[in-house]
Design brief:
By secondary structure, the protein is mostly helical. The protein contains 11 helices and no strands. The model has no long low-confidence stretch (mean pLDDT about 85).
Length: about 260
């Protein structure tokens, strides 16, 4: 990340300004519940993710029944209106549960306890969890100090000037985990989620305004380009006409061959 020290100073000041609380942290006593909530938290809210988890628990007898259910059935249960994001999340849930069962023969994650932090997140990713979900699982279930990041958080931090425009999820996560002390990671995560839930709408409006301004600018530039191209074509056409006139005048002034003289009788 370019100008990392400048952004580090800005971000540390920003993080200190956020109110800290522990209420609403995911219970780690049920790792599968943590996993489900983490999937549906991505670019959403803690409340919405918790409501989806409770809806699924009421509908299915256990996680095995959930595992063998088609993602379409899960989607119908959690969404009043289908969206590409929810469809993908329902598919992610069934993929992870089936990979977990195929790998360990059940719903236990105990076999992952011996892995290093990097290996753990890589393995969770290989089993189908997105980066945000892998980080939440690593922190809440396995005690690994991480700072989960989704695209909404990246957009919000960009809006605040904490990270450069165009930063990726991985870049922002690496940056935050470098400047946040390990013992502060859970509280920082919770503070950032609360901030995102309040600020996301403002940031989206700001992005929409920027996109509209950019489109207007592109439209104006395209109009200028067409006008300039038209002017060039007119100039070329005018030059061609003048050239044709000059050529015609030259031909008319050309010396005609003299007529043959009649022979004298």
């Amino acid at each position: 990340m370019k100008n990392a020290r400048t952004y580090e100073r800005i971000t540390k000041k920003f993080l200190k300004s956020l109110p800290r609380k522990t209420a609403g942290l995911i219970e780690a006593s049920d790792p599968i519940a943590v996993m489900i909530r983490s999937i549906f938290e991505v670019d959403s809210t803690l409340k919405q993710a918790a409501e989806i988890l409770q809806r699924l628990k009421r509908e299915f007898v256990d996680y095995n029944e959930m595992r063998v259910s088609p993602s379409r059935e899960i989607l119908d249960l959690i969404a009043e209106e289908e969206t590409p994001s929810l469809r993908q999340k329902a598919e992610t849930l069934t993929i992870f549960l089936n990979n977990l069962y195929a790998t360990f023969g059940g719903n236990s994650l105990d076999s992952l306890q011996k892995l290093s932090a990097r290996e753990l997140r890589n393995r969770l990713g290989e089993m189908g969890l997105p980066p945000y979900g892998s980080s939440v699982m690593a922190m809440m279930v396995f005690g690994v100090p991480t700072v989960p990041v989704d695209q909404t958080l990246v957009d919000c931090l960009t809006y605040e000037g904490c990270v450069p425009p165009g930063s990726t999820i991985q870049e922002v996560q690496t940056f935050l985990e470098r400047i946040v002390r390990p013992k502060d990671a859970p509280a920082t995560h919770q503070a950032l989620r609360a901030y995102v839930e309040k600020q996301a709408k403002v940031v989206r409006k700001h992005q929409q305004a920027q996109q509209a301004a950019q489109k207007a600018q592109e439209k104006q530039q395209a109009a200028f380009s067409r006008a300039a191209k038209g002017a060039v074509n007119v100039k070329k056409s005018s030059a061609a006409k003048k050239s044709r006139k000059a050529t015609g005048a030259g031909k008319s002034k050309a010396v005609r061959k003299p007529a043959r003289l009649k022979a004298k009788k």
